[in-house]
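User: Quick sanity check before I run a bigger batch. Here is a single chain. Can you write out its predicted 3D structure?
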Amino acid sequence: MLPTRHFELRNLPSAVLPPLVALAVVGVVGWLTVVAGTAVDIDTYRASAYAVLDGRSPYEATPVPYLYPPGAVFVILPAAIGSTLQVANVVWVAISLVALARTMWILVREAWPELEPHRTRNRFFWVFAVACLLEPTLLTLAFGQMGLLLLWMTVEGLRGQPQHAARSWLVGLASAIKLTPGLVILALAAAGRWRSVVWAGAGLVGTTVAAAAVSPPGLRDYVGGAWRLAYDINARIDPQNHSLIGVAKLAGLPGWAGWAAAFAALLIGITVTSWHWRRGDELAGLATVLVTSLVALPVSWGHYWVAAYPALILLQRDVRIRRPWSALLLASALVGMLLWVDTLGNSGALFLPPGETWSPLAILQREWWLLWGIAFLAWSAARLLSRRPGHLEGVGDAGA
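Assistant: Done. Predicted structure follows.
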């Protein structure tokens, strides 16, 4: 006769509290987003989606410029759901929160595969609740951005690597929607994971071809010059651009200085990522390549930093094996994201009197997240030199 596990009343709080807290946080965040969010990007997606459904180009006049590659047509179509913008916003917020939940579930399973099922669920609920409250999440939801969807595609696409290389088509899909995730494909190539590169390339090309079939005017306009609009907008000096290139422009440094720093960060980040993956530490590689994209690529708006969430999970994992620098980086990130340090700095940067420029000290204060990203890359590189074995289990089927 099999032993029976009896439920004890004293276990009720630990079983019920985490999901209740997560549900309450999701409800409050979702409600505030719908009521107080600007929804400026979802308004743009909605206009572009209607243009596609009418057989026109998504790059026609929109509330704000539509800057995405042709493949993004498959993501913006849900924005056409509903008779009003508010209904579309509710749908978009729901999709984004589901994507965030799935991402956190995969990351928790990857970081702590040894946990019992009920402990895994509880940790997921707590991690998900905190992620909903962080500044990049709230910015993404308030604007109606697609960053949480892209993060999910990337994390899901790398789940089970290198054994499940076919899932990498999702990384290619994300790259066809927005070019930033393409850096992950470069990292896969550097790690020698050519089957994954092939599948990612198939996803990229297949999505682009399918988008051309769905909206031929969109592909024609993008190739004909719409891509330059994205380049022109992203090339301007903007205090909300937290990349090395953007900060160099803001500081008035020569153009080559920002590009040289970005290239160095890119080279280091890709190298460290490939070595983590070669050693079997899938989570460390994923976290490193995503933070590299935030630091080294030309544009890094505040809502882009949802891509740092795998790094936060990695730091939390390493805190539990007594790495003091992990605790410092994790605490600084959580405090900064919960206190909206980035946005508070931006509000002042947007209203500088004409002719005045930021001092180096002011730039350092305002660019807290860029400094944190650089510090994380240094920490990630130092992990490779450490003799501590850490936790080197691969993704395997952790997120299945």
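Residues 234-384 form one domain.

User: Great, the batch can go ahead then.
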